[in-house]
Amino acid sequence: MSGTKSTNMPRPFTILIAALGGEGGGVLADWLVDAATHSDFPVQSTSIPGVSQRTGATTYYVEIFPVRQAELAGKHPVLALVPTPGAVDMVAASELLEAGRAMQNAFVTAQRTTLVASTHRIFATSEKMIPTDGRYGSEKILGASTKIAQRAILFDMLSQAQKAGTVINSVLFGAMAGSGVLPLSRTVCEAAIRGAGKGAEASLRGFALGYEHAASAQALVPKAPEKLPPPPAKENLRVRSEFPGALHELLNQAVARLIDYLDVAYADLYLDRMRSVVAVDNETDGAGQGYPLTRETARLLVLWMTYEDIIRVAELKTRPERFARLRKEAGAQPGEPVVIVDFLKPGPEEFADILSPGLSDLIKTWELKRRNLGRTLSFPLRLQTSSLTGFLALRFLARLKPLRRRSARFALEQATIERWLAAIKRYGMATRDRELVQEIIQCAALLRGYGGTQRRGRRAFEHIFDSLLENKTAEAQKIVELKQALHAARNAALANPDVPPVPPAATGKPVVWLKAG
Amino acid sequence: MERSFNTEVGKLRLGKGQTFVGEGILAVTKALLQSGVSYVGGYQGAPVSHLMDVLNDARDVLDELGVHFEACGNEAGAAAMLGASVNYPLRGAVTWKSVVGTNVASDALSNLSSSGVKGGALIIIGEDYGEGASIIQERSHSFAMKSQMWLLDPRPNLPSIVNMVGKGFELSEATNTPVMLELRIRACHVHGSFECEDNRKPEFSKLNPITKPEFNFDRIPLPTANYTQERLKVDIRMPAALKFIREQGLNEVFPGTYEDIGIILQGGMYNTLIRAMQQFGLADAFGAGKIPLYVLNVTYPLLPEEVTAFCSGKRAVMIVEEGQPAHLEEAINSILRRAGINDPQVLGKDILPMAGEYTGEVLLGGLGRFLKLTAPSGVDQSEVHEVLEEVAQVKQRAAELLGERVPMRPPGFCIGCPERPVFSAIKMIDRELGGIHVSSDIGCHTFSTLPPFNLGNTVLGFGLSLAASAGIAPNMGQRVITVMGDGGFWHNGLSTGVTNAIFRNDDSVLLIMENGYTSATGTQNIPSSPGLTEKEGSGISIENTLRSLGLQWVERVDNYSVSTVSEALRRAMKTPQKGLKVIIADGECMLERQRRIRPINAARLAAGQSVVRTRFGVDEDVCTGDRACIRLSGCPALTLKDNPDPLRVEPVTTISSSCVGCGLCGEVAQAAALCPSFYRTEVIQNPGWGKRFMSGLRRRVIGALVGTAKELS
Q: What domains can you pick out in chain A, each with its CATH number?
């Protein structure tokens, strides 16, 4: 963009600040105005606060005319109240998605714009409310920013702000000043912060961190953070002798978790199950690819086999590491007592799950009748886990582990697992279509959570298996169609997580289950 | 109040020779005092709330000058307040958010403009249009035309705006007509400076009251005076206005070298247009440009002779007029036609969009099209094309690189907002009863229509939700739930909705959100606010008001107890009792509450007294990531993080450190029987010796039981 055609004429330095309500974007705009005023530069800022201050996206816009008033002989530059694409010198975003929004709106151009943005994410409601993972990919914005901006200064400013014990706006201000493009000296910027009074010391610390980061790092482009590898688990002999090396680490993790969950025999059952899945990978040339089917099955199977019953929850809630983690998270100083209250709502069904199948059915039938009448024996329980009685109550539940193997839930889960594994093997061997098998494997992700979520997920799972996989007419379908049908059915169940699925179709009738409700 | 305005109050005292530096709407406030107003009123709302807030904090300054300030019950009340200027030489000003406020005020405005005014009457309109707006998109211009009030739209810099406040009063008095001063959102919030004048004490005021009331039947809208008043508008007031505007030179012409074309624009559009001209190389940094401009600082009425003089001899004229209908374009076309000037091609809404804000990009595109169509000599068409093309290319490239649109981030309930749990309860009842029609109102609670709640089928205006249910309720198989805020209740809801529902024995469920303030506009006080100031009277309880109307079914519930709220709702939905059933959802605005409590806790800590700090958390190994909690709450503090479990690929739900410990997530997890992941931690700061001893004892016993030497809780 050519911008102002008469290039020898001074033009305003234009700054678009993209932020979220409550992040101090207004204060940042005020600092800029103050710093420019002290530099004797004409300056103007505007904003659109309105209701967007309530956590929504908002923008502030500042124009600084980098010529001293004294040299202007009483003339006043015309400063705009709105940013115009192609005429923005700096976009400062306090969060990565907002940087993406500024690029989408064409405010970042290669000819003119320095992009200064924090790489941390504050997720939008639409990203958070989706089961599984609805997050917008940070890497897309990071990748685009270096290609679109004249220069991109990107780093996690939130962690720097936390380090300085301040709010993100001061770090952002520091990074803007440190970019070297802003027509304001470090001294006047810091004077502006000092002049604002309240919290100035912390803000100055944040400013310094931001400044140094931007000044030292030449257009550094961070990658999306990668997950740290887990600490290696104890090596299992069966894993070593019976499975290919690529799978050892994963399977060792799984075995350790299963022994912790129940016992060694349970871990053996897991390994027996996994052996047959390796065969499917071998059949579909998966060995050269690092056993993708086995890996995914191994991961989902161990999560499934360590399903969360009240025994498991009680155990997890009384681990010593948990107390330490919660103290740290609450920011408790040594010597400050921390009270922990757990919000539980145990009901007859949860207890029935750990009883024998006969007894369990009796209780569940009875509870279902009551629930249909609008009554339930579920009761909200606020358990003070940090108290002795609360702690002992949970420990008692955790010690019921021996009941698990003979429990109704255990039987149900093992039967469903066998159904799932059978389908993986049968379709894997028959079709040798890796994508199709992945679709079947991913059905395990439907069975998650507790209470209503668990019930709905189970119904969705059963529905898919009844109507699409264990059904003669459905089996006759083309592989491509079956893949699509599975994919659609799974997504429909995940997309309408709060709506109960339609009741299972009669067997023998091919139904492509698209959308519930 | 959301913030303190002490610094701003100080600026109101500035005198001649001093420079005011600050926000546009506060410059207007200062200009009112310089103009010798006797009284100021209004109703809060973005973008003019600060005018009210500052004057509310500036009682001393006002008392010294004798100026009366009143935060009115609604905009109709504010407009009616201008009645003081009908008979007496009192200058008065009122303000509100428009177009909604002007809608509410229009009854009084029609009467006011018909009666005419003796003292200057100025209406400061915060035009909530375009980016950042929170209301229906209409323009206030039409109101000025139909009631015949003059409309000022100054260039958006502080000296111009301040000058127009003074001229507005003079114009009003010279024409016996109320005057509207229109300021867009960004102009209200623009930060700039102007040279002050001394404040002026009004001639008549609290300090020097009027002693003799005036009766003049000519001011009453009854026959035959009403007919006379309409004639006066046409025969006397309009010509007087045209004369004043012309003689005072309120509109501005900026010359340009391309004399065969020109642009006529609203004053408020000036800066954006200059920026677009600069991008095409047609203007310098100080606005000196190549295209002649006719800037309408007064957009109603238009001066026919100025329009014809500007357009004569031109090939083409572009009209930059934001909003629709295109009143200016139509009027200009009509003026030229009547004057027999047919040469200039008038381009307006055909090269600029009919609807929506005229942003930088919009005006850049419009001006580009104007340059292409008119091809002024000296303008390189390829450069015009290049400028436009580059914007398009940047957009396209960003779209390609990003792949999908970035998610929207609309405003929502704050962390700890007391209204969120109520909607969690409604959502649960909605599922239980198979879908409920919800009649919504204006306020923070309108955010319930957004994800994750998506509750609220209609919004018909401030305080009108109960009235809006009157038609649908009898035609619905199941009772309808009406939601109304306490702000809406006092603004309009009590009279239009509640009393009539009782009077007509409507079978209705009304849920009143009593958070104590008009929170969406900046937490201003209302009659039922806690902690009213001494100036504000003794306060009025909503519950007592309802009971005094004879209402039997009134329940007050604690918002944060989701099960209590949902049980009350269930009772109200299912009771055989006919008539109005009201649930008062009681929970103070969390922003205000935090503001109130923070200093108290800081003082307690400093004094060594015990303070409990509460926050909530999610056990990362218990959460299975179905997000049911987020879909039932939507709290901003409830968010996602990468799963620390190497075997799980999906993120885990977590609670950020911004949690204020309201407890909704735990409540919802229990009320909807979601999952056992939620916990509350209470850190006891400055614990007494008893607490410390007991805590130490527990820690040792539990530590021994789990077989660890580590410090536990």
A: 13-216 (3.40.920.10), 228-306 (no CATH), 313-406 (no CATH), 411-517 (no CATH)
